[in-house]
Design goal:
mainly alpha, two-stranded antiparallel ribbon, 2 strands, 7% strand
Amino acid sequence: MKKILRKFRYGEKGFTLIELLVVIAILGILAAVAVPNVSKFIGQGEDEAADAELHNVQTAVTAAMADAAVGTIPGGDNQTFDTTHDVVVSGNISVGDYIMGYTVDGVNGVYSVNGDGTVIQVSF
């Protein structure tokens, strides 16, 4: 300890090469531990965003079916939903009025919906 204090007493300022290398090694170890964890959180956020989008579309489809009162979604080709089978709806069906936060009519993407209104497949 006295050596270190004596060294600084004579006006020498700064760090030695070994001290700098130790700090760089510690920072490298911290980065090696932190980077995989951060990338895991980024991927998890993307999954949660996709789940939220799917939930929004599910809610919009349910609201559109409730407004129609006969099991059809208004707009587009007005395809009827059969509650016992999955259906394929072709054409442009607008559920944009039922989704908050969208400024355009409709939703970008293709959504497959089964007979009870559950969204079963999404593709963009």
